[in-house]
Amino acid sequence: MKLSTRGRYGVRLMIELALHHGAGPVLLKEIAERQGISEKYLWHLINPLKTTGLVNSIRGAHGGYVLGKAPEAITLKEILQVLEGSLCLVDCVDNPSLCERSSSCVSRDIWGRRQRTCGRRWRIRHWPQWRKDRRKSCKMKQGHNRRKTMMDICDDASRGGLLL
Q1: Choices 3.40.50.40, 3.40.190.10, 1.10.10.10, 3.40.50.300: CATH for 1-74+126-152
Q2: Which of 11-20, 46-55, 93-102, 103-112 tops mean pLDDT?
């Protein structure tokens, strides 16, 4: 399964909100600047997240966006399902009526087991660890020291550095 830009950027958006959880609303413009993502693109991601209650908006001069619930209560699976749709590897696993062979198909059983295994991993919550990683200074093997950015953390996660 390959995640689209929508899913990857949405996770980065949610990580930014998790990092500022309890510190007040965050403007999309600030997130866009920190993450190097177009503010216009973030507008497209924020609406479905608001609709499902993962994000709340605060109006007014000191408004912006906050998480709709505690970071520890949000799973990666929830975020990706909102932004990507079904995380199913093969459509017939979720909807057997799509295939006339689904009741006797051996490969459907294989895909179903794989989906259940992946599903357990998608439900894992790592927000507290991401928050900790973001706040500490990391030495990078690039000939110099620099702080680990959220982009680095997301990249580490996609390479298996954090269980997603």
Answers
A1: 1.10.10.10
A2: 46-55
